[in-house]
Write a structure and sequence with these properties.
alpha+beta; 7-stranded antiparallel β-sheet; 4 helices; 9 strands; 34% strand
């Protein structure tokens, strides 16, 4: 395995930044079965509509679709099974306290491989945006683009 791919995202959840305010980020390991790692390395993962939850002192990733490996056999995994996340007890307790607050949820932002070759997921503690917040962020992004264009044209 090459180490130049370390930290490079396998999949990102771009929709999460559009629909949520990300207040805090956490890094967690994922418990995977056999061919799931090979599918991840091929980039065959979809984070859209996925979320994480904490129950009974453990964290879990729900609705994360990892496609079955193309060269796998009959022992291939279930694509949308619930996967356990590896976090320290302190982090789990912190997340449990924060997610019980009104309006906060855990959203996976990206999946990547660490320098040591372990699959990691970056979780964001998020608060949902209202429609007017989304419009405001779109206006700010457009204004930034116009400023960049103006600077580029001046040069």
């Amino acid at each position: 395995m090459k180490n130049d791919d370390a930290g490079k995202p396998v999949a990102t959840n771009r929709k999460a930044f559009h629909e949520y305010f990300i207040e805090e980020k956490f890094e967690a390991g994922i418990v995977l079965q056999g061919t799931e790692v090979k599918s991840l390395r091929n980039g065959r993962v979809n984070l859209q509509d996925s979320y994480a939850s904490v129950r009974e002192g453990e964290a879990f990733l729900h609705h994360c679709h990892i496609s079955p490996y193309s060269h796998g056999n009959i022992m291939n995994h279930d694509p949308i099974r619930v996967r356990k996340l590896l976090l320290h007890k302190k982090e789990i307790n912190k997340l449990l306290g924060k997610t019980q607050q009104k309006g906060l949820t855990l959203i996976p932002l990206r999946i990547y491989f660490s320098k040591r070759g372990h699959a990691k997921v970056e979780l964001g503690l998020a608060k949902g945006k209202k429609l007017y917040d989304r419009r405001e962020s779109i206006k700010a992004r457009e204004a930034g683009r116009e400023v960049e264009r103006a600077i580029k044209d001046r040069k």
